[in-house]
Amino acid sequence: MTKSVGSILVLYVASEGGLDLDADITAVYNITGPREYAVTTRFILTQVMMSDEAPGKEWEYDGLGNYWLYLLPHIIHVATGKTASVWFDELKGRLEMSQSFTWNTINEGPVPAVNGWYSGAVGTCYDWARWAQLIASGGRWGDDQVIKTEIMQLVSTPLKVAPYNYYSNPCWGHGMWVNADKEKFPGCCWEASRLPAPMCNEETFLTVHQTIWS
To answer: Among candidates 157, 135, 160, which has minimal Cα distance to 146?
Structure first.
């Protein structure tokens, strides 16, 4: 759940214009990437960098945050001049969340062994429900469009990287699991089924498309 909060936070910063999701983090932000090829924040959110050869070829879930998620708070800070915790407090304020919702390790990084972007967010059911409502409402809270609609839609949008004609994981969007329409998003849902090809594309989620999970 913490990683999902982190993804929403990154999208919020991008929505506010402080972060370019498609900027090369090395060339633009002077941050050493985890691969020899150019790495973007979008690649990190969609986790399409298992391959050492090129993004989009293979997918891997960064369960402990030590592959590439650890870079996100550093990227936010360099790109905007404000720490991730400052952005987090701003977002919480717009969602009218309680002071009980905390994430004490949010600024940890950029050392992979010291990373707080895979766990640490703590809050009441009331607060977590507000995160869910933000997602269900397409980035809107009441009359406030907190996250731009086109950016919020990325949560449930898998990524396909040229020159590949498949999605390295059609069941993962920009930071969350999705129940992809496999005719529209061809590829293997690796972690959804945990089965090898060609069985990896069998239905393992609900039959209703565009459902998302944190």
So the answer is: 135
